[in-house]
């Protein structure tokens, strides 16, 4: 627990004083020191909560082509799909990395693959936000109703072209993207619980 707090503090300091958009030693330590499945931070631990409530930072194109990013992406996928988690999405802050990266199960694509998105943001929404059930790997054993749009636009840094790419996402997959992007702002679904 002490190690995560120290690493979290180092990340916060690096974000304030170091060059933006480059991997810092504390991030490398978290990514490379764990096995293939990373520890998921939860609100049950005060030190984890501090990290989960901290906004993350974007990556530079050169960061996305690095071994550090590739390893992080692989481990995020292994973590969210592990039998212990069995989730539909995960954001980098949930594994202690305060960077704008999410992994989402694409229910809207054949085979329902998991895909990883660096520097993702929601750039548009259509229709009316509707309530629906949500849970979170970082908020174990709880569920609640949250208002979400079912038709959104996402913009992210393509790992192939290293340029921003925009996609329209609909249905349940749109809900997952909104939930995971909230993590990048330090917001948890419990902050948005819907009450009639």
Q: How does the SSE layout of this entry go?
A:
Elements: H1 2-17, H2 25-33, H3 46-52, H4 61-64, H5 67-80, E1 89-91, E2 101-105, E3 114-118, E4 121-125, E5 130-136, E6 139-148, E7 151-157, E8 164-170, H6 172-184
Antiparallel strand pairs: 1-2, 2-3, 4-7, 5-6, 7-8
Helix pairs in contact: 1-2, 1-3
Topology pattern, helix = H, strand = E: HHHHHEEEEEEEEH
List the total number of helices: 6
Percent range of helical residues = 25-40%
* Span of the ends, CA to CA: 38 Å
Number of DSSP strand runs? 8
Q: Which structural class best describes the helix and strand composition?
A: alpha+beta
**Rounded average pLDDT:** 92
Key words describing this protein structure:
three-stranded antiparallel beta sheet; globular; 25% strand; alpha+beta; single chain; Peptide Deformylase; 196 residues; 6 helices
Please give a structural write-up:
With 196 residues, the protein is of the alpha+beta class. It has a single domain (2-192), classed as Peptide Deformylase (Alpha-Beta Complex). Helix content is 32%, strand content 25%. It has helices spanning 2-17, 25-33, 46-52, 61-64, 67-80, 172-184; strands at 89-91, 101-105, 114-118, 121-125, 130-136, 139-148, 151-157, 164-170. The termini are far apart.
